[in-house]
Write a structure and sequence with these properties.
Layout: H1 33-44, E1 49-54, E2 57-61, H2 62-72, E3 77-82, E4 85-93, H3 97-106, E5 111-116, H4 120-125, E6 134-140, E7 159-165, E8 175-182, E9 187-194, H5 195-205, E10 209-213, H6 214-218, H7 223-227, E11 232-235, H8 242-252, H9 266-282, E12 294-295, E13 303-304, H10 306-311, H11 326-330, H12 336-347, H13 353-368, H14 370-382, H15 386-394, H16 400-419, H17 426-436, H18 440-449, H19 470-497, E14 503-507, E15 511-517, H20 518-525, E16 534-538, E17 542-546, H21 548-581, H22 583-609, E18 615-617, E19 622-627, H23 632-635, E20 643-646, E21 658-662, H24 669-685, E22 693-697, E23 701-706, H25 718-732, E24 738-742, H26 750-768, E25 771-775, E26 791-801, E27 804-813, H27 821-827, H28 832-851, H29 853-860, H30 877-888, H31 896-912
Parallel strand pairs: 1-5, 7-10, 9-12, 10-11, 13-23, 18-22, 21-25, 21-26, 23-24, 24-25
Antiparallel strand pairs: 1-2, 2-4, 3-4, 5-6, 7-8, 8-9, 14-15, 15-17, 16-17, 19-20, 19-22, 26-27
Helix pairs in contact: 8-9, 12-22, 13-22, 14-16, 14-22, 15-16, 15-22, 16-17, 16-18, 16-22, 17-22, 18-21, 19-21, 25-26, 27-28, 30-31
Bound molecules: adenosine-5'-diphosphate and magnesium ion.
Length: 913
Amino acid sequence: MDLARKHDPADASQDGNGRVTPKTDEDIGRVTPMMEQYIEIKAANPECLLFYRMGDFYEMFFQDAEIASRALGIVLTKRGKHLGQDIPMCGVPIERADEYLHRLIALGHRVAVCEQMEDPAEARKRGSKSVVRRDVVRLVTSGTLTEDSLLDARRNNYLVAIVRARSSSPGEDARFALAFLDISTGEFRLTECDRVGLAAEIARLEPGEIIVSDALYGDAEMAPLLRALPAVTPLPRDVFDGATAERRLASYFAVATTEAFGAFTRLELTAAAACVTYVERTQIGRRPPLSPPVREAQGATLAIDAATRANLELMRTLAGERRGSLAAAIDRTVSAAGSRLLAQRLAAPLTDPAAIRERLDAVAAFVTDPALRGEARAKLAAAPDLARALVRLVLGRGGPRDLAAIAAGLLAAADIAACLDRLTPAEIAAAAAALRRPDPAVAAELAAALADELPAFKRDGGFVRSGHDGALDEARALRDESRRVIAGLQARYAEETQIRALKIRHNNVLGYFVDVTAQHGDKLMKPPFNATFIHRQTLAGQVRFTTTELGELEAKIANAADRALGLELAIFERLSERVVAAAEPIKAAAQALAVVDVAAALATVAAERDYVRPEIEANIDFVIEGGRHPVVEQAIETPFVANDCDLSPPEGESAGRIYVVTGPNMAGKSTYLRQNALIVILTQMGSFVPAKRARVGVVDRLFSRVGAADDLARGRSTFMVEMVETAAILNQAGPRSLVILDEIGRGTATFDGLSIAWATIEHLHETNRCRALFATHFHELTALAGKLARLFNATVRVREWHGDVVFLHEVVAGAADRSYGIQVAKLAGLPPAVIERAKLVLAELEAEDRTSPARRLVDDLPLFAATPRAPAPARDDVAEAVAKALAMLNPDEMSPRDALEALYALKLKAARS
Ligand code: ADP
Ligand code: MG
């Protein structure tokens, strides 16, 4: 691949074939001018891999080349010497640069893109030793991407700046300000939080990149959090300088003061300024069109911490896949921008009933008008991603297809606005107004200028419609005409020389040339032909010539083509400027399209899956009738069994209820817990819900934990994790919160676990006073209902049938009588011998347990007396014999083979009776 590179011959350090020129400075140990330039640019960007443009390639040298060749699996070659040593080199062709960039960024690298800043011909004019002027035009980092090929269309890609306030007194909790923006859509927001809230915010935003000051990055308290995150970039102190923050922010938005945006704290301003400064540094001075920063109101969104998000599988499953997540189950959006907005709303449900109702009104309007919904969705599906095309144009990174996207998007916007006239909800009316704002002349102008088929890059030319510009048409005609003349010339030369195989070809090094096979080469180098044909190059099988005529034609073609391209580029700039000038209304229209898409999409899923509009209230009621799990019901083939849930305060009480849910494994406890949490999230994000009826008193914080979940990655024992997370809940949940605890205490010895679960329930009931669902396999806990006024027992019903369990998945009041663990094990296909053996062991253990000191102690506690006790097993002679034999065994000293043999012996004993 190396020989095929088209490095420009004018670069003093490159020869025509991209091969190393022999006998140069580097051979004698001097640094070549090009290497000098490379080293200087690299030194200015030490943290980045440097993509150094040479002709049609981005080359990397030295250590960069070694890193990239390993990361990308591309060949590592050499290119000359530096201080007597070979210089490792590898490179990627510019057409495929995006793909390689994507992989490097995904691996956590940052890339500085260094371009040629002048035509190599200019460099040549300065003398043979001169080097093409180059400069870094952009730093590519994971939080500042704009290319479609580098972004997930369905997700926002946030750059987040974190700043910490020095606490004024030692005991006081640190405060943090977060500023976050999506450079590819222009969204820019601010928020403040405490240490616990910080982790939750990061979980909500799933940042593409986080920037912090060097000092914060090195801080011992912050290290565990920051080091566990994928893309954290520490930056020098000046980026986080509070004294210059307001000025930097104002300068970015070209306003005299940021007061017009709202009254921000110094901490917020510092975070916001860090974001824009980083954007300017990575975009090398260019300013993508950001919306002015908006503060997110405190408490305006439902607080959901990272563990809860993961556990409820909101955006992806625990296995990391989108399939099987709530997002995948409800996302029926038809546009990328709609999908991003839906994800945002899902990640940050609201807490203000009026705002939630406004969203529900919009969904309801589309639910009741399926025809309109279908029409709007068809139009939305055909509209391109306006926001991201716009940003690329503003950053000067856009191509002809971005212009076309703007044109088509604006036409679609106007069209959709017209079809929304019938709908009255405020959210839709506001969207329709925004869709009408952009000047229709912009779309018309773009449509008139652009061709039907568009190249990916403007440098390829051919994107301006013929007939649009007289001068351009003329230049193109001249160029095409000359090409025809060349074809004629080839025919004439073949005729004159009687070489039928004579061809006129073109390449980037020689330009146009006459190409004949070696056997005909001699003929053209002798009279009379040598008067016309001038030798250029001899290859293994080919000899190449030029002629004066060909040279003249070539110049003519090149001139015409250059002129045509120049005219096209000028037209591109003009159209681009037109778009940039209208950036603000275009951005608003793009956002409005997303809003309409989300409302119509939520209406679609509601209609498809029979969801109802939830009632949202400012109290702490929670009544679900016939609730279903939105993901499980789509995944299973059997009908889903709907279940009720009522956590509203009982008569005369001022706090909500707690359910203790018991039932065997696989009965549906976890499903039931989660479906109620998911119904809260759906309600508060403004969606209809899978239920017959739902009345939800606004939840301010939602917690969900599962016992004994693995967290090996962070190297904590599972039980430790479980306890850390339970502690977080007990310290934070309040009267408006909803807590879901699934089998807490499972990760330790039985009595430990039981005691912890016991005390946890008491704390939730007495101190947190929140609504809660608590699934447990400790049946003893059901006795607590007799003691705690707002505690209720619920169980998932099963039926026992011929010694097997049948799961009914139906939640009813009351407690489960037993675990059916062995029956479930049987269903799972454990060998019959093991099942039989387990039954025996269980009988033995239950008999022993009744007499164990611990059990007696529990029995002495009045509450536990209510626990239904397993009936004493019928003891017969066989059992006696088997039990005796069992007692003789010492499992700790047995080999697997011994154990198996003992098992056979036991079976034999049992069968003998
Ligand atoms: P548990 O937590 O009690 O062990 P799960 O909630 O994990 O049980 O449920 C086990 C399986 O039972 C689920 O994967 C699902 O397929 C099925 N299931 C649970 N609840 C229902 C339901 N209400 N209707 C139908 N199937 C259900
Ligand atoms: Mg479970």
